[in-house]
Amino acid sequence: MLLRSIFALAGAVAIWSTAAAAETIKIGVTPGPHAQILEAVKPIAAKSGLELQLIEFSDYVVPNAALDAGDIQANSFQNQPYLDNQKADRGYKIEQVGLTVNFPIGVYSRKHKSWADLPEGAKVSIPNDPTNGGRALLLLRDKGAIKLKSDVGFKPTVIDITDNPRKLKFVEVDAAQAPRALDDVDAAVINTNYATQAGLDPVKDPILREDPKGPYVNLIAVRAADKDKPWVKILVDSYHTPEIKEFVQTKFKGAVLPSW
Fold it and tell me: In this structure, is residue 1 part of a structural domain?
């Protein structure tokens, strides 16, 4: 009886020690693939003593503000140009600690079966934030729809258009609202996570699709003061596993591309 009691006490102490050692962080995500992938990461991170609590945000602006304010400890929703723009504009001390996935952006239409079918003067919606709006214009430039100034970098705006042979009319909308604009425009440039959330197929449905290149790989971000903390390595290592790569490839079938 005494021996059994000692073993029972030892087991209880071991369980308590494991629970005490576990750390919980809040990580901000946008609905759709980012949230789905992090759900798959949760049990892997838990094996290393890191509990992930996902906090969903419906737009691209709040997650960095929440991270900078300390309301969350990490986020996974953005690419490097977007993060750089937010840091420059708002002074956030936020750093990239690991790459995640790439979402080739696409042009969708409910009125036309191909880009060639768009009439002269067609209305095309693009995201209204500098990074995704610029990305949309670069896509249209690369596909020969417009020409841009030579020195625009990754954040061109409509005033940087130097040639618009089909006299396209650009309508700037919030990225999260882009799917809702489809009924009001001839075509809409929509980020993959919002396209999938709206029931669109990012592989089959776009009438134009971005080549999977450039700096638009998404990332995990944390506050600069936290980047060397042990939980950051656990989070990134848990994401960068063969299991998550297989999950992304199987779940999204080419709409989302692993980038590690």
Answer: no
Q: How many domains does the chain have?
A: 2
> Within a domain: residue 6?
no
**Containing structural domain, residue 48:** 23-104+215-258
Cite the beta strand spans of 103-247 per DSSP E: 106-108, 123-127, 147-148, 161-163, 169-173, 187-190, 208-209, 217-223
pLDDT truncated to tens, each residue of the chain (260 aa)?
544 544 444 454 444 444 445 799 999 999 999 999 999 999 999 999 999 999 999 888 899 999 999 999 999 999 999 999 999 999 999 999 999 999 899 999 999 999 999 999 999 999 999 889 999 999 999 999 999 999 888 889 999 999 999 999 999 999 999 999 999 999 999 998 899 889 999 999 999 999 876 788 999 999 999 999 999 999 999 999 999 999 999 999 999 999 99
Report the C-alpha gap between 128 and 134 in whole angstroms. Answer: 9
